[in-house]
């Protein structure tokens, strides 16, 4: 399909699709794209808006479910004004909004605009459900060298493992990660743009947003509002932000594609498949690793006598157990049956407030963060834990040193499809 786009008009391309600029210059998210033989892809579930800077000829190939539409305007009028103002100033901008409000689009436009004005720009993704940097279950930071259309194509300079695709229940990890990411880019960038998650409902969500603004020492906060959904967060900032700090309240992106839960999962799973496409098997020694989150590795391994006692109390085959001051982790054979009422017998016999029982093999598919010298280097998928010989089998594209691992709460199957997300680390 050959499309003629006159100067000043917008063309929205809904993926799956691809396009090539045959003649003229277009602006895509504030990045200038000139006539070129290079083609651009619009993945399924994505939409790109092209603005003709001069009369253009564009070749568009549409896949199943894709479409094109011409518009006079693609973005709210306020956006250009606010982006122009923000991209002329140094500091930190935090963008807050509901899901499908246009946060990623706004951040991309702001970053590209800043680069065109000569500022050094950094991006921090605070949403572990998106794959803007690395893969879902992580947050990350990057420095932009040139304008971009897709933030997901940028190479991270630092990442932090959250372990879930939502901040719910792991807000402490998110805040710690933001502090670390900020320290990585604060001296390298004039402008830091932060995209937050779409988790906005409830007091816990409000607390996370306020903590995000505080830990990043944000100069300016942008609220992308559809209606009144952000008022409870906004009221927590309006009084305290004045003088050299400013709060912007502007319209969310109208007509933004509302992604279904299935579409969001598809995008996440596409990211897992891409990341693990060249993964290799690795065997790590648990005794050589620091282990964060979950109970495994935090206690003292029990001897055969204690294992026999627990086996009798549970009437199950216990292959491994460890205890610390107030808790007990028990691993039973994969074919063992568990009488949950019997757990209280173990709790009373060992005087522990918490007793966790897991089955051997249940760890398969769990995502883990791989660290070296305190920094996330890659992500792996658990394949097997040999509790007796203290070995852990994973697959990962990362081939370097691993000195610590962090257990996540998300399980994938062998095709990297999401199977289950736990409230807490299951082992």
UniProtKB/TrEMBL annotation:
SUPFAM superfamilies: P-loop containing nucleoside triphosphate hydrolases. This is polynucleotide 5'-hydroxyl-kinase. GO terms for molecular function: ATP binding; ATP-dependent polynucleotide 5'-hydroxyl-kinase activity. Keywords: ATP-binding, Kinase, Nucleotide-binding, Transferase. It catalyses: a 5'-end dephospho-ribonucleoside-RNA + ATP = a 5'-end 5'-phospho-ribonucleoside-RNA + ADP + H(+); a 5'-end dephospho-2'-deoxyribonucleoside-DNA + ATP = a 5'-end 5'-phospho-2'-deoxyribonucleoside-DNA + ADP + H(+). It comes from the Archaea. The keyword RNA-binding does not apply. Its cofactor is a divalent metal cation. Residues 97-277 form the Clp1 P-loop domain. Polynucleotide kinase that can phosphorylate the 5'-hydroxyl groups of both single-stranded RNA (ssRNA) and single-stranded DNA (ssDNA). Exhibits a strong preference for ssRNA. Its EC number is 2.7.1.78. One of its GO terms (biological process) is RNA processing.
